[in-house]
Structure formats: structure tokens, C-alpha cells
What does this fold into?
Amino acid sequence: MTELHEPAAFRTALRTWLDENDLTPPPGEDSLDAHQAQHLRVLKALWDAGWMRYGWPESAGGLGGPDILRAIVGEEIVGRRLDHPGPYSMLEVLTPTMIDYARPELAAEMVPKLLSGQESWCQGFSEPGAGSDLASLTTRAEQRGDTWVINGQKVWTSFAQYATRCVLLTRTGGPDTPAHQSITAFFVDLDTPGISVRPLRTMHDVDEFCEVYFDDVVVDESRMLGKPGDGWQLAMDLLPYERSTCFWQRIAYLYSRFDALVDEVKRQGQAIDAEMGDAYLALHTLRCRSRATQHRLAEGQKLGPDTSIDKVLLAGAEQQLFDTVRNLLPGVIELDDTEWRTEYLYSRAATIYGGTGEVQRNIIARRLLDLGKE
Ligand SMILES: Cc1cc2nc3c(=O)[nH]c(=O)nc-3n(C[C@H](O)[C@H](O)[C@H](O)COP(=O)(O)OP(=O)(O)OC[C@H]3O[C@@H](n4cnc5c(N)ncnc54)[C@H](O)[C@@H]3O)c2cc1C
It folds into this structure.
């Protein structure tokens, strides 16, 4: 283990580097295009300096070391507001999946492109009729020689308009194969003929996610992730990452917004009241829980349904924080076109993305508390 694999030394060295290398976003640019450009710029700088390679295996272009090093990079970058938590989170969602499921040569070729900001990828799971009930997805892949032909539609695919590739879940196998055993994942180039991407406008007025259509899209068998029928397990293995390292940087972002709220409330001459205390407590509870999760991941433990607790706490803390903003800064959400308004509206999605609040509570009830069905 090199000196930099030790988390405290790593954090100190990274902070020094960030102080010496200004990655502040250009002022006055708040469009999604500007966020994406900044995201790629930050990744390139971090990759070139080595930071983005720690915590990833050497077989995929990394420099090794514990997973927790990635959580530190995410916390410092997103907590300093150098990148937005949404685009940054795609790294933690998709890279472990590629490393675990792609052919080693494919992972070695592709992972550095994502981590170095050469390109972005998206996650094509949800469909118009398959969100919470993901196992009912209908986008079909049929084998034709050494290739597979894909037809169907995905929806809510975050940042697909910027993505060059997609981790895609498809239905394979015949009508008699059980639903969970007939899902197969592919790593698809989005410039393949037959793919169209249509951005969708959200209520916070940003084209953050897309519909993606697949019409007779031919994908080589070498792009299959795992074996036919491994898709459900891939999805189950991906979601805990979405709720661990990925959350750590989102929590850092929420803390930075809590600090900004304290400044704003003080500037307006108001007292820091009990509601802010409650919002802080929710954030702190979330951070404590997530910290334990990062450590379990760093120890090499496999994460599972227990990360649903982290998801419930994250959604609750995020919404409580922006509810507090709405209550303490009257009119700023309803009347002003500010960042607070965008963030308040986006926080409503926290009980939906990565598995809804109701579904997480079902998982906790059934799989952790053994309370049986409904
Ligand atoms: C900001 C954002 C980004 C996203 N990004 C992506 C992405 O990049 N890729 C991707 O594939 N998907 C993405 N999604 C989609 C997300 O995964 C789905 O929205 C989510 O899984 C819920 O599915 P759904 O929207 O179809 O709602 P539904 O499953 O139709 O649920 C509707 C309502 O019914 C409730 N419900 C459903 N089933 C049950 C049940 N069994 N018990 C109790 N209540 C139930 C739900 O809790 C919800 O309130 C994103 C979503 C958001 C909001």
C-alpha cells in the first residue's frame, strides 16, 4: 500500500492539490450544457493528476487502494461545488458494474474513458411500464448469429443526450423463462444506427433525462455484460453502489447547501431556529449511516438491501433541508428564479430516483425486518 492509499494522507494531499489547482466553474454559466462541460473538465483534471484513478483496480486503469478513496474524492469535489452531484454520481453507479460484469478487456478499454472525462455514459433501466417493477421490462434483445438485435424504449434515462454509451437492460429468453432470469445487460454505443434520444423537460425546467428508443439496433455479443440472464443480478449489484459512495458526495453537497442557508438566514438578520436544528440532525443522521456504509464497502463487504435504509434517510434529509429553505426564506421558492427554487423542486425527486420511498420501505420491511408480504 502506498502512502497515498491511507485515507487521511490521501485527503490532505488532495485538498492541497485542489487549493493549488483552481477548478471553480466559470461564473454565470448555469445551464445543463455548462454543468456537463464543467463535469468533463473536472474529471480530466483529476484523471491527469491521478486522483480519479485511486480506489479503482489497476485492471481497469486505476491505481488501486481502498474504495473509500473514491468517496473522499467525491466528497471534496462535490462538497466544494466543483461538480454537480447528478453527473458525478454516474461514475459510481456505472463503473463498478463495468468492472464486475464486462469482459476484462472491455472494462480496461472503456472505464478510463469515463473516469477521465473523455465521455459520459447513461443507465438504461426504466421503461414506461417498468420502474419499481423493473423485472417487467419489455425492451427485447434477440440473438442473430454473433449479434443481438434490440427493440424497445427506455425512459427517465439521466443525461442520455450527453452520453456516448449506455448500460442497457433487455428482455431475452422465451415466454416460459421466469422474468428475473430472462433479463440480459448490454453495453451499447449510442451512435449505433436505430437509436434515438429525446430529452424530457422536468418540473425544475431542465432537460435532465430522456426517452431512448431502440429500433432494430444491432449489438455485438462481445458487448454483453455477464451472460444471458445475468441482467437482474447486475441491477441488484448496481443499486447498492448507487446508495453508497454515490450518496457520500451527495451528502457533501447537502451540507454545503445547509451552510449556505445558515449564511442566508444570518444575512437576513433571522435567528437560527429549531427547524434548522432538525434539518441538521436529519443530515447528520444520514451522514453517520452513510459513513458506516462506506466503511463496510471499504472492508470488501457486499452491500445489499441494507442500503435501502441509506436511501430512505437521504430522501428524507434532502427534502427536509429544502422544506426548511422554503419556510425560512419566504417567497424564494415560490416567487424567485433562484438556485434554491431549482434545488427545492429537484429534491422532490429524491423519493423517486434509485427506487421510490415506498419500495425502499417494502424492502426494509420484507428483507431486513422479515415482516412478510404486504
Ligand atoms: C431524477 C431521476 C433520475 C432518474 N434516472 C434514471 C436513469 O438514469 N435510468 C433509469 O433507468 N431510470 C432512472 N430514473 C427512473 C427511476 O428509477 C424510476 O422513476 C423509479 O424506479 C420509479 O419508477 P416509476 O417512475 O415507473 O414509478 P412507478 O413504479 O410507476 O411508481 C408509481 C408510484 O407507485 C408506488 N409503488 C410502485 N410499486 C409499489 C409497491 N409494490 N408497493 C408500494 N408502492 C408502490 C411508487 O412508490 C410510486 O409512488 C430516474 C428517476 C428520477 C426521478
Strands lie at 120-124, 140-144, 147-158, 163-171, 183-189, 195-200, 209-220, 224-225. The pocket of flavin-adenine dinucleotide is lined by residues 122-126, 131-132, 156-158, 209, 349, 352-353, 355-356, 358-359, 362 (CB under 6 Å). The longest strand covers residues 147-158.
